[in-house]
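Long-time lurker, finally posting.

We've been working with Type II toxin-antitoxin system RelB/DinJ family antitoxin (Candidatus Lactobacillus pullistercoris) and I want a structural starting point before designing mutants. I don't trust myself to interpret raw outputs, so I'm hoping someone here can both generate the C-alpha cells and explain anything notable. Sequence follows.
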Amino acid sequence: MSITTSSIRMDKATKEAADKQLKKIGLNFNSYVNMAVTQFLVQGQIPFSVKVPEDLPREKTEKAIEIAEKKDQGLLPEDTPAFSDGKSLVNYMKKYKE
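Top reply, 14 upvotes:
Generated this for you. Predicted structure of Type II toxin-antitoxin system RelB/DinJ family antitoxin:
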C-alpha cells in the first residue's frame, strides 16, 4: 500500500474542537479522516447525515466554492486576488494604477 499526504484547510477553532472531541473517544484527526473516507468509499455515500447550521454565511460560502471551482477548471489563476468589498478592490487597483 502506497501512502500519500494530503492537506486540509479549516478554521483553527474547528480543528481544535475536533481534536478535543476525538481524543475523548481515542481517535486523532488523521484517523477520523481516514475512517470517514474509507466509509465513503465502502458505502458510496457520505457516512453521516449532513446538517447545515442556520447561521451559516451561505452567500459567502457559495462565492468561495464558485471561485475554487473556476481555479480548478483553470479559468482563474491561483494567484487571482479576491475582495470582500468594493473598497478593498479600489485600494488594490490604486496600487497598480501607475
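Before you design anything, note these points.
The mean pLDDT is 87.
The two ends are 55 Å apart (CA to CA).
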